[in-house]
Amino acid sequence: MLWPAAFLSLRLSMTSLLLNVLDLSESESHQTENGCPDSCFCSENVDGGLVVRCSNMHLIAVPHGLPNITQHLYLDNNLLVTIPSDSFVGLPLLFELDLSHNRLVHLEPGAFQGLAGSLSRLDLSSNQLETLDPMVLGDLRAQTNLSHNPWLCDCRLQLAMPQLLLDPSSLAEVVCNNSEPEELGAQGMPFILVAADIDFCAALRRTTDVAMLITMFGWFTMVISYLVYYVRHNQEEAIRHLGYLKSLPNRQGRIINS
Q: How far apart are CA 231 and CA 224, in angstroms?
């Protein structure tokens, strides 16, 4: 009486194992069909897009060949140092991008090219970013987490901040590691509080104004010098020409008398 029960249990185990194999095969087939990178795991979202997880894979670059239906891309906890321009071109549906807990020190202008119309969430927290050039963002408007980076609070960061919808929960963690110029005394303070009282672009504007004045003065001096030279040169020519004209009647008189 025990043998049929054992046989039934073995049969159920084999059936379960076969179903798991079929599910795995179907999943791999789906990933292959959508071109999921080898270093990532892809799963279908409820609305038909893809969730691509490349977390903790020791990546040193953004994977190539990401499926164009990717909606959520997780590249957190890797070894990324920079994001080159056009890294995410071809991902028109990308809604969320997680780049947290990497070693990012530089974002090239155009790094988020092509994402302005879709990207709504961007996580850059826990990296080594010091400043954020507005050229990097382009027309991007996304809720962004910038916390836990050694920010150099300067004019570039001040100009970049209004382009982003900062994650409210991270505002207190966007802290000035240093400031430019240093005498502003922003070190150790949240940028959102410092920026309310300090215009980081004021010093740059003054420097730019002085440079423009010096340049204008230089051009003005060159123009005046040229005019003085031109007048003097032509004055000497005019005097010589006038002397020549005065000598003409005398010469004609000598010719007649002879």
A: 11
